[in-house]
Amino acid sequence: MKSLEKxxxxxxxxxxxxxxxxxxxxxxxxxxxxxxxxxxLIYDAINKILVKNKILAPNLLSENYINNYIxxxxxxxxxxxQILKNKKNNKYVIFKKIIKILNKIQLIKDKKVxxxxxxxxxxxxxxxxxxxxxTKLFCDWYAPKILxxxxxxxxxxxxxLEIKNLLSKLNYKNVTFVHRDFHVSNLMYHNxxxxxxxxxxxxxGNRAYDLAxxxxxxxxxxxxxxxxxVFKFYVTTNKKIDLEKFKKDFxxxxxxxxxxxxxxxxRLAVRDNKKKYLxxxxxxxxxxxxxxxxxxxxxxxxxxxxxxxxNFIR
Length: 314
Fold this sequence. Notes:
Elements: E1 8-10, E2 18-22, E3 27-31, H1 36-52, E4 60-64, E5 69-73, H2 80-85, H3 91-106, E6 112-114, E7 120-122, H4 128-135, H5 137-146, H6 149-168, E8 176-178, E9 187-190, E10 193-196, E11 203-205, H7 209-215, H8 224-236, H9 243-271, H10 281-292, H11 299-308
Antiparallel strand pairs: 1-2, 2-3, 3-5, 4-5, 6-7, 8-11, 9-10
Helix pairs in contact: 3-8, 4-6, 5-6, 5-9, 6-11, 7-9, 9-10
């Protein structure tokens, strides 16, 4: 294979990875020095599980783990995000196809797989402690940029208590394969099929999580009417769901995820000098606003956010 310098570097994401296109092999080189266990070894392990379950995901073509890279299938440049941004395309029809892929992912029972080092990798559980630590990114990175030092100490204490309280209200157990970053920028349109990428963070968790990632995706603005239609379609394709309990979990996880995302985007700007994500924060607030009014469980959080971030909570 050619040296990486001779290959075309392509647009990356918010992670510590670099991507290069090898046109000769019709492949992508994924390079990662930081977090290479997750970004290379675990990424391939999760892809193997997806492929085994007949979901289109990148196959490993070669690995050079010592030199920090792997080679995988190239699914081209067309994401579902680009397709959905085209006003001519019927968004609801496309989302229905995505829900069918999500349903397949949620049927996965495999939790263990051999990685390319011939060692077993076990998909871990999406514990409440992990969800708590993720949501806490909001008060670790975003809140200190907005609030005074005096306010931040009080806010952090109350915010953490409120997140723990919301997590205790979740109904569904951690028994479902969760991609954990399931949104339209991580879905490729390749040979008239939908391919799933960026699956290295997958865990076994709550079945509402990936649906919340998809419907309340901070990168793609959709109407509340479309959000509701896609949610209803998912429910009609999953008859055994307890609608009331599931909707509650969906709303809690959507709010927590968007708080986490606001924290992550601020961290990317401050720590990594990746400021382009800051422009997405207002829409994340908009979705928090939309969901937070749906159930009484959010009353304390509404008061807390309204007091400290009055510009965003109406």
